[in-house]
Every structure is written in structure tokens, then in C-alpha cells.
Specification:
Layout (H helix, E strand, L loop, with lengths): L15 H12 L3 H26 L8 H30 L16 H36 L1 H9 L1 H20 L5 H7 L5 H11 L4 H9 L2 H9 L5 H32 L1
Helix pairs in contact: 1-11, 2-3, 2-11, 3-4, 3-11, 4-5, 4-6, 4-8, 5-6, 7-8
């Protein structure tokens, strides 16, 4: 078994503080390029979102529904490879590969794999959430049918019950999503792997690590609030900082697992 206890002499994972410190060190002298990458992706996503809004808000009858569906599909097929390129841009950056902004479009070189991994990665949390939501909804309706007191309570404050149900469902989706948080990085390092192989490997690597990654994201909440006071300008620096930190998280976990496997082989 791999160990994380330094007193045991085994490999040790970085603390989240060390991860953030390493990310800042990797970004040193590269902030301009990192910010530019974020701006490019944001502008493209903004244009895509504007196109979707234009067609979606058109008066009924002026735009064929099939065209609206096609536009939305096209935007998704642009966004998913672009998101792949954005994440792997920062992976290359923390690996000191000095990526150019052209690397943002690497996802289009493995288009279908990038799309498939991103789709599965995003859909699985929703499916797991539905596994809770549907029985929860059924139970709520059953209680209303069997218990007059529950029905009265629901009718008095339906918002509270729906808030609880939807809140728990959303929390489940978020927790499950962390299982697949490393999928893009794994696809980058294993481009010949099948989609579900990538997903399963991400789930395996994140076993017992979801809380750590959640706390890493949570550690940026103070900066996110401060960025609001800058009218959003601060996000130009915060988002690259977060992306670099998550890439360092992956690199450290990959190193940890490799060192643990080597230690077990020698034992």
C-alpha cells in the first residue's frame, strides 16, 4: 500500500499550500501568456454564447427549431475541444514546456476523443444526481399521498422542500464530478486510451482525493470574492492561478502514485 505519512519513509503528497506555491512559481514570468490564454478562451466562449442567445431568443417562427438545435450542437463541439486545450495549456505550463497560445486548439487535433471524454465527464455526474433525484422526488410524492400532515407542510412551504431536494442533488453532482476531474490530463498523457479507460483511470486516481481537491478549490474563495471588488478584472489572474494549481495537483498525484508503485515493486 502507498503511504502518505512522511514518518513512514514513503512518498508524500504536497499540501494544498505547497500546490498553490508551486503554481505561482510556475506562473512566474509567464503571467502574460497565461492571462492571454484565458482572454482568448473567454472571448471565443462569449461569442459562441452570444450566437446561442441570438438564435434562442429569436421570435417564434423566424428561426427554425432545427437550426437552433444545430447551432447549440455546433457551439458544444467548439467549446469542448477548446476546454481541453485550455486545461492542457496549463498542464504544459507547469511542466515548463512554455506552451504558445496555439496550444489552446490542441483539442481539435484529437477532436472526437476530446469531445467524448468531456461529454462523458460532464454527463456522468448528472446521471448519478438523477439516481438520487428521481427516488427522492418519488418519495416526496408518496409521503404527500400517505401523510396528510406532510402534504399540509409541503403546501405551506413548497420552496423549502424543493430547495432541499435540488440542493442535495446538486451536491451529489459536484461530489461525483471530482471523480472525473483529471480526465482531460489523463487523455493528454494517454491519447491512445479509450474514453472509458480515461474515465476509469481518473476515478481511480481520485479515490480518496476528492476532498483534497475540493479544499484546493475552496481555498480560492477569498480571492474570488476580492475579484468581485475589481469588477471582475481580478479573474484574469485568478482563473490561470486556479488552473495551474489543479495541473500541479495532477502532476503531484501522478508522481506520488509512480513513487508508491516503485516502492511496492521493491518491497
Amino acid at each position: 500500500m502507498a503511504v502518505e505519512n512522511p514518518s513512514a519513509g514513503g512518498p508524500v503528497l504536497m499540501t494544498n499550500g505547497e500546490i498553490r506555491s508551486t503554481a505561482r512559481a510556475k506562473l512566474a514570468g509567464k503571467w502574460g501568456r497565461a492571462v492571454l490564454a484565458f482572454v482568448i478562451v473567454t472571448v471565443i466562449s462569449g461569442i459562441a454564447g452570444g450566437v446561442v442567445s441570438f438564435f434562442g431568443e429569436a421570435e417564434p417562427g423566424r428561426v427554425a427549431p432545427a437550426l437552433v438545435v444545430m447551432v447549440n450542437l455546433l457551439v458544444v463541439l467548439i467549446e469542448l475541444p477548446l476546454q481541453y486545450g485550455f486545461q492542457t495549456f496549463f498542464l504544459k505550463l507547469v511542466r515548463d514546456q512554455n506552451p504558445s497560445v496555439e496550444r489552446l486548439f490542441d483539442g481539435f487535433q484529437i477532436f472526437w476523443k476530446a469531445v467524448a471524454v468531456q461529454l462523458v465527464r460532464n454527463l456522468l455526474p448528472l446521471l448519478w444526481a438523477l439516481v438520487f433525484f428521481l427516488p427522492g422526488l418519488g418519495l416526496m410524492w408518496l409521503l404527500m399521498y400517505l401523510s396528510p400532515s406532510f402534504l399540509i407542510s409541503y403546501l405551506q412551504n413548497p420552496v423549502a422542500y424543493w430547495t432541499i431536494l435540488l440542493g442535495v442533488t446538486a451536491a451529489i453532482a459536484v461530489v461525483v464530478s471530482f471523480r472525473y476531474a483529471l480526465a482531460v490530463y489523463i487523455l493528454h498523457d494517454n491519447p491512445d486510451s479509450r474514453t472509458m479507460q480515461v474515465i476509469r483511470l481518473s476515478s481511480k486516481m481520485m479515490r480518496g482525493r476528492r476532498w483534497k481537491l475540493f479544499m484546493l478549490y475552496l481555498s480560492f474563495i477569498g480571492w474570488a470574492i476580492l475579484c468581485l471588488l475589481t469588477l471582475g478584472i481580478g479573474y484574469l489572474f485568478l482563473v490561470p492561478y486556479v488552473e495551474a494549481s489543479v495541473a500541479v495537483f495532477y502532476e503531484d498525484l501522478k508522481r506520488f502514485e509512480a513513487a508508491s508503485a516503485a516502492g511496492e515493486a521493491q518491497a
